[in-house]
Amino acid sequence: DNKMDFKVADLSLADYGRTEITLAEHEMPGLMAMRERYGADKPLAGARIAGSLHMTIQTAVLIETLVALGAEVRWASCNIFSTQDHAAAAVVVGPQGTPEDPQGVPVFAWKGESLEEYWWCTQQILDWPGDTFANMILDDGGDATLLVHLGTEAEKSGQAPDPVTAKSHEQKVVFDVLQASLAATPERFTKIGNEIRGVTEETTTGVLRLYDMMREGTLLFPAINVNDSVTKSKFDNKYGCRHSLVDGINRATDVLIGGKVAVVCGYGDVGKGSADSLRGQGARVIVTEIDPICALQAAMDGYQVTTLDDVLDVADIIITATGNKDVVSVDQMRRMKHNAILGNIGHFDNEIDMAGLETFPGVHRKTVKPQVDVWTFPAAEGREESAIIVLSEGRLMNLGNATGHPSFVMSNSFTNQVLAQIEIFTKPEEYPVGVYVLPKHLDEEVARLHLGALGVKLTELSGDQAAYLGVDVAGPYKSDQYRY
Ligand SMILES: NC(=O)c1ccc[n+]([C@@H]2O[C@H](COP(=O)([O-])OP(=O)(O)OC[C@H]3O[C@@H](n4cnc5c(N)ncnc54)[C@H](O)[C@@H]3O)[C@@H](O)[C@H]2O)c1
Ligand SMILES: Nc1nccc2c1ncn2C[C@@H](O)[C@@H](O)C(=O)O
Q1: Which residue among 204, 236, 245, 246 is best mutated to probe the pocket of ligand 2, counting the most ligand atoms within 8 A of its Cβ?
Q2: Active-site annotation holds for 149
């Protein structure tokens, strides 16, 4: 039957979600401009987009923009805790539907998925009804892209990659998914890989994986690195986290941040916004870094820069923002202050050694409320019993404990996503397999679309000045090497 398939928490939340989507549209001028500009031509007609990106109110506006441009879409979240159930419900029901007769977009996402459910959802967006497949991926962190690649490799070799070697951050679960798929449909991922025209990747960690696959020569289709549009990473990663980090800490713990010692591990775009977020609340912020340039930036921004080991005994709040793995070990957690807060705002949970924590001898977990756990270490030689408060089980806590970044800053990121989807879908001949960034004139166009709402009045370059700078009056105004 042609009844739409989907799996969300509660369709009765759709009206609440719709109301917030309508408010969000007012805060997302870039996306609404995309609907104005491209809604008639429908450049994405024929696109079957598999979206793996936090299923929030902001993402709902992105999804409905892609549909307005002609795309068919199936959506999953890229994190087990980041779905907002009312947003998922509203997208399934759609602007014209009802919970009894949903007319929207298939969504497979709910807050609090198990890992098995997460990877089941990821598979649902790749397989389309009537034995067809997605032909575009919109990814955040690269899990959908990874599954297609691991599946294709498994089908080529006839066996799923050994869980120990699989690069995915949830090896065992992915291994089981691949085993089952090999048994049931041994050509499935190869067919999907052939069908996919390209992927547009949202975030730093997902982009890292794309460059890895490019270097290994295993990348199956072209990719646009949306993260490195200036109007994405210098806004979402920075000002988005400035807004949503303290939001997550407040909703999780209501702890006073002023006067406390807060440690931010990593001073890249996210770390900069996160440190500013905590300083804004009157915390004494300390930064850890491995990169001398970012460390120097942090020092000149007035932060103490030292090693995590040096500050474990004074830190009240520790936040990882590195995009790296193994940043906080269980031994370091054991040495943290009693009731100190530990959270991660990086994409994956591997920044904090959650596996080591869960298996620490005699450790006790008490859930305060969803995504807030008190982990108590037993007394040991020379150490009293002590506890730490871990947010979102080490997964990105601004989306696990709060609602992520606000609409206006996500409008910048998602306008880049829409432009990137149009680029790859309508000009495949310009995108042989490789990893690309959007041209600067589009980056500047995204910024232009967001100035009016903030009352910005730009100054016009004279022809003479433009000649002096060697730029066009209409832009681009900077070289590709320029660092903003
Ligand atoms: N939660 C969110 O809403 C959100 C938003 C954007 C990006 N992200 C994610 O946040 C992470 C960081 O993103 P970014 O754009 O800031 O990356 P980035 O590369 O700009 O910054 C990461 C910084 O961490 C430093 N670093 C690496 N390993 C370290 C270690 N062991 N100790 C201390 N510092 C270390 C690096 O030198 C770098 O300066 C990525 O996983 C990204 O995908 C999350
Ligand atoms: N409200 C929101 N909706 C969707 C995604 C959201 C978000 N807040 C943060 N991300 C994550 C993004 O910052 C993503 O671009 C990333 O880089 O992780």
Answers
A1: 236
A2: no
Regarding an ipTM greater than 0.85, the answer is yes
Sign of CA dihedral 107, 112, 114, 118: positive
347 assigned to active site: yes
HSE-CB for 460 with a 13 A CA cutoff: 2
Burial 148-181, CB ≥16 within 10 A → b, else e: bbbbbbbbeeeebbebeebebbbbebbbbbbeeb
* Its pTM surpasses 0.95: yes
Q: Which residue has the tokens 């232009």?
A: 448
Select which of 52, 181, 407, 413 is catalytic.
413
Gap between the Cα atoms of 259 and 58, Å rounded? 33
> How many angstroms separate the alpha carbon of residue 265 from the centre of ligand 1?
8
438 with 229: CB under 8 angstroms?
A: yes
Short-list 438, 433, 431, 435, CA closest to 416: 438
Distance separating the N- and C-terminal Cα atoms of the chain: 53
pLDDT tens figures, 117-173: 999 999 999 999 988 999 999 999 999 999 999 999 999 999 888 766 555 556 788
DSSP string, 94-114: TTT-BTTB--S--EE--TT--
Q: Which helix (H) or strand (E) holds 364?
A: strand 364-369
H-helix or E-strand spanning residue 317:
strand 317-320
